Amino acid sequence: MKPIYLDHAATSPLHPKALEAMMPYFSEHFGNPSSIHSFGRRTRHALDEARLSLAQTIGAHPDELIFTSGGTEADNMAIIGYALKNKAKGTHIITTVIEHHAVLHTCKSLEEQGFEVTYLPVDEQGRVSLTDLKNHVREETILVSIMYGNNEVGAVQPIAEIGAFLKEQGIAFHTDAVQAYGTIPLDVEELSVQFLSVSAHKINGPKGTGFLYAKKGYDLKPQLFGGEQERKRRAGTENVASIVGFAEAAKIAMEDVQEKRQRYFQFREQMIGIFQEEGLDFSVNGHVSDVLPHVLNISFKGVNVESLLVNLDLAGIAVSSGSACTAGSFEPSHVLSAMFKDDEKAKSSVRFSFGYGNTIEDIEKVAKETVKIVKRITAL
Predict the structure, then answer these.
(1) Is the sign of the CA dihedral 373, 374, 379, 380 positive or negative?
(2) How far apart are CA 135 and CA 120, in angstroms?
(3) Which terminus in the chain has less CB density within 10 A, N or C?
(4) Which long-range contacts (CB under 8 A, 24 or more apart) does 73-76 make?
(5) Which residues form a coiled coil (predicted)?
(6) Are 220 and 68 in contact (CB under 8 A)?
(7) Rounded to an integer, what distance in angstroms lies between the CA atom of residue 283 and that of residue 305?
(8) What is the pLDDT of residues 201-211, one digit of tens each?
């Protein structure tokens, strides 16, 4: 069987058209976009065009986009930058227990600097309660950071409802939209978010670039010091080639976003249907309907997930676990542990994530191979 990649939530292959768009900026168009001569003006024009194109994908003004090295830097910039800039207004931040570590570890860092952070719990479907959030907001609360869609189980949060409430309260709102961007239409005004993080390599763009949307009027304390790039908000020469590739990948992603969503939901139904037909004892983790279409997290009862992953890899199938293996020890992921009291369920979870290049035939092959491996493991 040909190798099949179903780990697009981890990273995605570079789209050929994105690579094609990037190539001239590795060779003839090499100028520094901050230079005033013709070489610099050429790359500055490309940078401006990419910024405009990317801003339009989320309904933002081009000046509100800050190019970063990816989602992690964008999260750090939003949370640390806004917290330090507005420390005089308050030192309380709210987030959730299932955030990406780029948010959780950033919040922990701020706690060491005197900030107080509230980590909201989630239900068994991975969703946060708006009522719970309202109950934890107080006078000193200056920022809330809640991810749009979870990278492990795909649960989508009620971002628009949360944004509307926080707007009334005058509290800044950041969402990590790294997994949602390109699969769900996003409009920053409709969502009432002031900060939004995106990464290129999740949408078939290059690794090492992303952006932070920062609404006009919401200032950040810079975390990098040097030149005056990105309107003095993020020093350092911009990665023009990658940003051009990012813009091209985003353009492609937005052109077929609805068709892509339907295709991925079809993949989900196909895989789940085969598992049901074969009589596997499994459960789907995450919300039934409010879910990222490309992420399918499943627990197989009685299955050691490490054995399952190894066997799938030997069969040429790349998927991942919602759990982390570190130095020989096996611990369930923080997301699944937050959702379930049953550690065994958390330890038997596998994430299938779909993307560019996958076909319905691929999904059928992976599902049937998974069935064979699960039955073999549970028969031992």
Answers:
(1) positive
(2) 10
(3) C
(4) 73/210, 73/212, 74/197, 74/198, 74/199, 74/210, 74/211, 74/212, 75/100, 75/102, 75/103, 75/106, 75/145, 75/174, 75/176, 75/197, 76/102, 76/106, 76/223
(5) none
(6) no
(7) 14
(8) 999 999 999 99
Catalytic residue among 325, 359, 361, 375: 325
pLDDT tens per residue across span 162-219:
999 999 999 999 999 999 999 999 999 999 999 999 999 999 999 999 999 999 999 9
Smallest CA-to-CA distance from 177 within 197, 161, 205 is with 197
Residue 102 CB partners (closer than 8 Å, separation 6+) = 71, 72, 75, 76, 176
Residue with the two structure tokens 């308050």: 90
- Can you say whether the dihedral through the CA atoms of 355, 360, 362, 367 is positive or negative? positive
**328-357 mean pLDDT:** 85
Q: Angle, to 10 degrees, between the axis of helix 240-255 and the axis of helix 257-277?
A: 70
Cα–Cα dist 50/61, whole Å = 12
Is 220 in contact with 233 (CB distance < 8 Å)? yes
pLDDT score for 32: 95
Report the pLDDT value the prediction gives residue 345, as an integer from 0 to 100.
Answer: 82
Residue 117: name the closest of 146, 74, 88 by CA: 146
Give the Å distances, CA to CA, from 45 to 34, 38, 41, 99, 364: 11, 10, 6, 36, 45
Q: In this predicted model, what pLDDT tens digit does every residue of 221-280 receive, in sequence order?
A: 999 999 999 999 999 999 999 999 999 999 999 998 999 999 999 999 999 999 999 999
Looking from the CA of 60 toward its CB, the CA atoms found within 13 Å total 27
Cβ-in-10-Å burial (0-12, 13-18, 19+) of 175 comes to: buried
What burial letters (b/e) apply to 119-135, b meaning 16+ CB within 10 Å?
Answer: bbebeebbbbeeeebee
* Residue 357 backbone phi and psi in degrees, to 5: 100, -20
The yes-or-no answer on residue 325 being catalytic is yes
